[in-house]
Amino acid sequence: VELFKGNIEVAISLLNKAFELPDIPKKELFYGHLDRADAFQKLAERCDDLPKYEDCLGAVDKAEGDYLQSLKIAESLGWTGLATAARGFLERLELRRQLILWARDGSR
């Protein structure tokens, strides 16, 4: 809900707290990592309007970590379709990284 309201930092904070809960089932972990990765990606997209390149690259790195975790979980559960989707998210995230690097290096 917070993510859709545009409260990205609040959404990330709430997701971080959720990860502190004990014994989280793998299914919920998958979606938690996916949701947090989406939130970090939205932070990275802020570079389109507000070029804080190092902050945005850090957000890309964090999103990548969560997408990789979701991929690992999906593969371990045999969710081939969701694993494929996670790979696609990683590919699009890499495009975001390249855009940020291009904007950063082109503005110098």
List the helices and strands and how they pair.
Layout: H1 2-5, H2 8-19, H3 26-45, H4 53-76, H5 80-106
What's this entry about, in short?
This protein has 5 helices and no strands. It is mainly α and 108 residues long. The termini are far apart.
Q: What would you call the structural class? A: mainly alpha
Mean pLDDT: 93
Low-confidence stretches: none
Radius of gyration: 15 Å
Shape, principal axes of CA atoms: globular
Strand proportion = under 5%
Give the N-terminus to C-terminus distance in angstroms: 38 Å
The helix fraction, in percent, is over 70%
Q: Would you count the extended β strands for me?
A: 0
The tally of helices reads 5
Q: What characterizes the major β-sheet?
A: none
Order of helices and strands: HHHHH
Keywords for this entry:
0% strand, 108 residues, 5 helices, mainly alpha
